[in-house]
Give the backbone structure.
Amino acid sequence: MLWGVLQFPGSCDERDALHACGLTGEARLVWHEDRDLGGVDAIVIPGGFSYGDYLRAGAIARFSPAMESVAELAAGGGPVLGICNGFQVLCEAGLLPGALLLNDDLRFVCRQVELIAGGDPSSPPADRAAARSPFLAGIEAGERLSIPVKHGEGRYWAPPAILDEIEANGQIAFRYAAGQNPNGSARDIAGVLNKAGNVLGLMPHPEHAVDALTGSTDGLRLFEGAERSPA
Amino acid sequence: MARVRVLIRPKEGILDPQGKAVERALPALGFERIEHVRVGRMVELEAEDADRVPELCEKLLANPLIEDFEIESLDGA
């Protein structure tokens, strides 16, 4: 599988994302001005501060030429992973529901957190976007993953009606474990999927959790899942 | 060119930590009975076609999911 890692002016995690993708497949950088993604099968929108986060995080990046192609890839069922700033970009672009707001205590957080996968394990798997998501292939609903967060604007928010809807659709990919919500996110939501399950946005950084040397390899499982899933 | 001011603020009901932080600082400065502080953003611009400013606000300057905006004309003020 060929991964593309999108790079904006102000991206800062593209090298770790390339490394993580390269552990499971081939990976190359895609410059934000390139309308042509170069035949990649999947896209990672990495963390950082695209366009300096001016105006709002992700607000300007969503208008870059490459994002039009990312939207087409997503519509065709291709795996799209937005991490941190990438999650903000996907929400601004309307590819994922909701928005990311300033952390409730205004502090930048940088710490390891426990995530619970697959949203609500009590809902039937067939109805869950999480059960169809390539990134969650091989991760059971209810499993705990240890992955770091580092952000100042990670408070997930959506109107209650939309939160109810995405919960019912099984679009919650990850929640922070009880007592570990680092930013005041609604209903402890750490990551959400689109309805089809092929687009995932999350605030924690799976690309920073791919080597035992840095504490956890749980993040690698997302990349492996996408690699194993049929295109 | 039409001179326009856009005021953008967090929607009612959404926690505004910046407003809260300002509010909490006020008593120490001797300002009492000040409540509901909300911190937003102001954008001023000049536009040839002022009719398109609402669309500009919807698409870029504000995120309508989380923010309200108001457009004021600065001409003849």
Remarks:
- The interface with chain A takes residues 14-15, 17-18, 21, 60-61, 63, 65-66 of chain B (CB under 8 Å).
- Strands of chain B lie at 2-10, 41-47, 67-73.
- The radius of gyration of chain B is 16 Å.
- Residues 2-73 of chain B form a domain with the Mth169; Chain: A , fold (CATH 3.30.1280.10).
